[in-house]
From TrEMBL:
<comment type="similarity">
    <text>Belongs to the bacterial solute-binding protein 3 family.</text>
</comment>
<dbReference type="Pfam" id="PF00497">
    <property type="entry name" value="SBP_bac_3"/>
</dbReference>
<dbReference type="InterPro" id="IPR001638">
    <property type="entry name" value="Solute-binding_3/MltF_N"/>
</dbReference>
<feature type="signal peptide">
    <location>
        <begin position="1"/>
        <end position="21"/>
    </location>
</feature>
<keyword id="KW-0732">Signal</keyword>
<protein>
    <submittedName>
        <fullName>Transporter substrate-binding domain-containing protein</fullName>
    </submittedName>
</protein>
<dbReference type="InterPro" id="IPR018313">
    <property type="entry name" value="SBP_3_CS"/>
</dbReference>
<feature type="domain" description="Solute-binding protein family 3/N-terminal">
    <location>
        <begin position="50"/>
        <end position="284"/>
    </location>
</feature>
<dbReference type="GO" id="GO:0030313">
    <property type="term" value="C:cell envelope"/>
</dbReference>
């Protein structure tokens, strides 16, 4: 079922002509990441010998498996890129709403955690080439799907604080020409409550403290359904709230962005990216 939904998602994206959160397909360095400092971010990272990656926990991007090992598509991609660049990688859990503060204060060196590219983020950070397609999905209890899809008036909707879902609901992320239904209009009569993470947004729905979670489709497909902790929940993408593309964010003007872009290009060429994507059932959403 998840694969069918993923295939349909990619088909819709190809038909509507993806522009991903208002982004172009230019690399982050081409999209306005002019350096304001003569200092080399790469020299700084080389000097400490490691790339510190800011993450939140959600499958299939960054999460702990049954052996308590940090795994996921973004986790393995960051590890592969760091190895190619000859440095170590360290993962640091952050509050997503504070991501830019964490980045600029050098508590972390990049955000590699299913981050949707937006114009605001491209203005404030240096963003990599897009690497994965995404959209926003409504998640709710199976038993209430018909009722909720009929009307969300007076219901409680939740999304991760600082996420694209929240930005779509409050209108801080503008609708583009891939949007068929405006999330701001759709949820205007609902009660919005922020969650600390997308995983916690799903927990709120499962526990009944929220009626609907608006989360990344990549997250929903990885965490909801048969064989998961959320078998009683259902993914609904009938409303096209617009398509997005995932990118990796670095400090504004960072010279690490192009090094990572080139490393990922080489990992595509040697088959590493496809191998990792297949492991997490994301091969149909890759941007090649």
């Amino acid at each position: 079922m998840k694969k069918i939904i993923a295939m349909l998602l990619v088909l819709v994206m190809s038909v509507t002509g993806l522009v991903g959160c208002g982004s172009s397909n230019k690399s982050g360095s081409e999209a306005g990441s002019t350096s304001t400092s003569s200092d080399s971010d790469w020299a700084y990272i080389q000097g400490k010998g490691k790339l510190t990656v800011g993450i939140t926990l959600f499958a299939p991007m960054n999460y702990y498996n049954e052996k308590n090992e940090l795994v996921g598509f973004d986790t393995e991609m960051a590890q592969a890129v760091a190895k190619k660049l000859g440095i170590d990688v360290e993962f640091s859990e952050i509050n997503w709403d504070s991501k830019e503060v964490e980045l600029n204060s050098k508590n972390i060196d990049c955000l590699w955690n299913g981050m949707c590219i937006t114009e605001e983020r491209k203005q404030n950070m240096s963003v990599s080439d897009p690497y994965l397609y995404n959209t926003q999905a409504m998640v709710m209890k199976k038993s209430r799907e018909k009722e909720i899809m009929k009307s969300v008036k007076g219901l409680t909707v939740t999304a991760e604080q600082g996420s694209t879902g929240e930005g779509k609901i409050d209108g801080s992320i503008a609708d583009d020409d891939t949007v068929k239904v405006s999330a701001k209009d759709y949820f205007k009569d609902a009660n919005y409550v922020a969650s600390d993470s997308m995983a916690k947004a799903l927990m709120e729905v499962k526990s009944g403290t929220a009626d609907v979670a608006l989360v990344d489709s990549v997250c929903a497909l990885g965490m909801v359904g048969e064989g998961t902790d959320y078998e009683d929940l259902v993914i609904n993408m009938d409303n096209n709230f617009g398509q997005q593309e995932y990118g990796i964010a670095f400090r504004k003007g960072s010279d690490v962005t192009e090094k990572v872009n080139q490393a990922i290009k080489e990992l595509y060429e040697d088959g590493t990216v496809d191998t990792i994507a297949k492991k997490y059932d994301l091969q149909d959403m890759l941007i090649k």
